[in-house]
Amino acid sequence: MCNLYEKLETCLRSVRAKTDFKPEVALVLGSGLGDYAEEIEIKDTVDYTEIEGFPSSTVAGHKGRFVFGYVKETPVVIMQGRVHYYEGYPMADVVLPVRLMGLLGARKLILTNAAGGVNFDFKPGDFMMITDHITTNVPSPLIGPNIDELGVRFPDMSRVYSERLCGIIRRQAEELGIGLKEGVYMQFTGPAYETPAEIRMCRTLGGDAAGMSTACEAAAARHMGLEVCGISCITNLAAGMSNQKLDHKEVQETADRVAEQFKKLVTAVIENI
Ligand code: HPA
């Protein structure tokens, strides 16, 4: 057994000492969506700091806990605050929380994030369903000894974002009258926003949105066989696409402006999952 799996088992024991809640769906909340976790029927919470061996988040505005509870009838575990590669953690630690939610029983994963719009058709406040991703700017979370208990050495990534779940997102957005774009998410390391040249590269390579998370989590989740989907909130036009300088405040403000719609969509997806 490899060290990483032992670490995961230690984390799992830590969480299981605090709750025996069995989630079906795991949800990762991006910027601006954080308070969604407070709106569900909460059964238990576990702070990341209470979990032995867990990488705890350092980003202001990211809370750092698992929230267990129900969205209508569906048992969920929500990551309120994710771990980012730019915080300095090894990739294996960045994806540890997602793997842990899988080991806690969740078989479906909904990823959300704030992202810069790269596609010229996108505007701030749009939602983009992630249809595929490009991770070549960041190391793979699967580098290192394979965790055989989770999945195979060379996992297939030809359909990371489940066709079934994408169908549910499309249908629910339409029923709610929420506009939905679709596209490819490219993960950058951050923490600096990209340069205009990097954004042109992203577009040339087929990227529609740029961000600093998510794709590595999706890859780790697919490795262990979870059914994955993702929605980006396009909070700004990416670097070089407007005269405006990029700053976290704008990202936060846009995310806050559309948070209610984002939450409605996420709720509807979970209810129909
Ligand atoms: N780039 C990367 N990450 C982001 C952006 C961006 O423009 N906006 C929100 N997160």
Description:
The chain contains eight helices and nine strands. It is α/β, with parallel strands linked by helices and 273 residues long. A five-stranded mixed barrel has the order 5-8-7-6-9, surrounded by four helices. Helix 1 (3-16) crosses helix 3 (96-103) and helix 4 (163-176) crosses helix 8 (259-271). The two termini are 34 Å apart. The structure holds hypoxanthine. Hypoxanthine is lined by residues 114-116, 188, 193-194, 210-212, 235-236, 238, 246, 251.
Question: What is this structure's SSE topology?
Answer:
Elements: H1 3-16, E1 25-29, E2 41-47, E3 65-71, E4 74-80, H2 91-94, H3 96-103, E5 108-117, E6 127-134, H4 163-176, E7 181-187, H5 196-204, E8 209-211, H6 215-223, E9 227-237, H7 248-257, H8 259-271
Parallel strand pairs: 1-4, 1-5, 5-9, 6-7, 7-8
Antiparallel strand pairs: 2-3, 3-4, 5-8, 6-9
The structure holds hypoxanthine (HPA).
